Amino acid sequence: MPGRLLALAGGALLAITVGVTARRLHEKRNTAEAKRRRQIARNKLLVTELSKYLPERRFKLKPGVVGSLRRNTGFNEFEIFRKYLWYLLRERTFDAEAIEDLVALKTAAELSDDQVADALAERAQRVYDKYGTLMLRELEEETLSASGLERKATCKALFQKLLYLSECERLVAQGSQAAGRINLRVIFGASERDVNRLRIVSLYEVDLEAAFSQAPGVNSAAGVDAQPADIPGDGTTGRDTTGGGRIGGRGGASLGPLPPVVISDDEADEEPPHFQDDKPRRSA
Predict the structure, then answer these.
(1) Which of the chain's ends, N or C, has fewer CB atoms near its CB within 10 Å?
(2) What start-end ranges are recorded for coiled-coil regions in this protein (predicted)?
(3) Does some domain include residue 7?
(4) Which residues pair with 200 in a beta bridge?
(5) Shortest CA distance to 250 belongs to which of 258, 266, 239?
């Protein structure tokens, strides 16, 4: 009898120990930090897998590849496109290869123009939430610190790239209802003059010196070449309609590859909370 009681007590103690251990493991696995680590791993896997095809093997990026990536990461096709868009904006040189890769991903993910427009509008809103409005006036910029000037230069660069992508016919048909869903002027509180000033005229024509001279301590980014070339335009604005070349603009700024974000950010809030500006959201 005493032996049986001891066995029961031992079994109960073992069950309690196992239960407590399992609970602790469950809690540890579901902490914010653990979820963030898993999200980082999934984001990294997404970029790593797509980098096997983009840009060198772009022609092999098919719906089946995106489907496999969806199963391996848990992201749907829209999320895959949205995350790679942010990676492209932040870490890749904004050139013809980058544009072609984004178009190829849109095709492989079988996304509509409306979905691409939503991804661009969402990213624009997040950029605004982090960096605030565009500041293009000298009196405004004189009140900023060096770090503030750098943040605004980054904001201008991202705005330029988003504007170019939103006007790319192969991503979003211009004049369509989808194109109307991307209202960068409203999101950033920009005027028509601001938009015209920052619009990329041609991916071949680069004018970075003037832009960076306005932001002390900000160096021209690696991977952005100033190599003017004669290319076809649309005959009216001179804007590049061929989709080739590297980033440029009238009085605009480009930081080229920026600090990595897609690989390190979680799904719930791709912008780290402590980097966000205390500014109200604007409806696009």
Answers:
(1) N
(2) none
(3) no
(4) none
(5) 239
Task: From 157, 104, 150, select the one nearest 127 (Cα to Cα).
Answer: 157
Q: What is the spatial distance between Cα 28 and Cα 232, in angstroms, rounded to a whole number?
A: 58
Alpha helices per DSSP H over 30-95 = 32-51, 63-73, 77-91
Please tell me the predicted confidence (pLDDT) of residue 24: 67
Burial (Cβ within 10 Å: 0-12, 13-18, ≥19) of residue 88: buried
Find, among 104, 49, 113, 107, the residue nearest to 75 by Cα: 49
Tally of domains in the chain: 1
In which element (H, E) is residue 8 found? helix 2-29
> Reduced to 3 states, what is the DSSP secondary structure of residue 246?
strand
Longest dimension (CA), the chain: 99
Q: Residue 112, Cα to own-chain centre: how many angstroms?
A: 19
Could you read off the pLDDT of 209-237 as tens digits, one per residue?
334 444 444 443 333 333 322 223 333 33
Structure tokens at 237: 């604005």
Residue 108: domain span: 28-275
Q: Is residue 62 part of a domain?
A: yes
